[in-house]
Amino acid sequence: EFVVRKRYSDFVKLRAQLIKAQPKYRKLIPNLPPKKIVGKFVPEFIEKRRKDMEYFLTYVLLHPVLGTTGVVKWWLID
């Protein structure tokens, strides 16, 4: 188990970089939860977003191709 401390915008950039690096897997890369402007500090919203982003990252990391790309490796250590 590990903790990743990244902003929403970092996840958006990661997704875009993955699509650019592995375009044939574009449809397999999960969408991120939508960005919300109003109510973004509501605990229920924060927890749902956290879970959705955790799903995104887990899926990417466990995928045999996406999880081994340099894009993902650099994103994790940056």
UniProtKB/TrEMBL annotation:
An example Gene Ontology CC term for this record: phagophore assembly site
Any idea where the PX domain is?
A: 1-78
Q: Where are the transmembrane segments?
A: 56-77
Q: Which InterPro entries match?
A: PX_dom, PX_dom_sf
- Subcellular location(s) per record: Cytoplasm; Membrane
Statement: the UniProt record of this protein carries the keyword Phosphoprotein: no
UniProt KW Hydrolase keyword: no
What GO molecular function terms would the record report? phosphatidylinositol binding
Give GO terms for biological process: autophagy of mitochondrion; endocytic recycling; piecemeal microautophagy of the nucleus; protein transport; reticulophagy
Record Gene3D superfamilies: Phox-like domain
Origin superkingdom:
Eukaryota
Alphabetic keyword roster: Cytoplasm, Lipid-binding, Membrane, Transmembrane, Transmembrane helix, Transport
Note the topology in the membrane.
Peripheral membrane protein
Where is it predominantly found?
A: cytoplasm
Q: What family does the entry list?
A: Belongs to the sorting nexin family.
**Mind telling me what this protein is named?**
PX domain-containing protein
Naturally occurring in which organism (per UniProt): Rhizophagus irregularis (strain DAOM 181602 / DAOM 197198 / MUCL 43194)
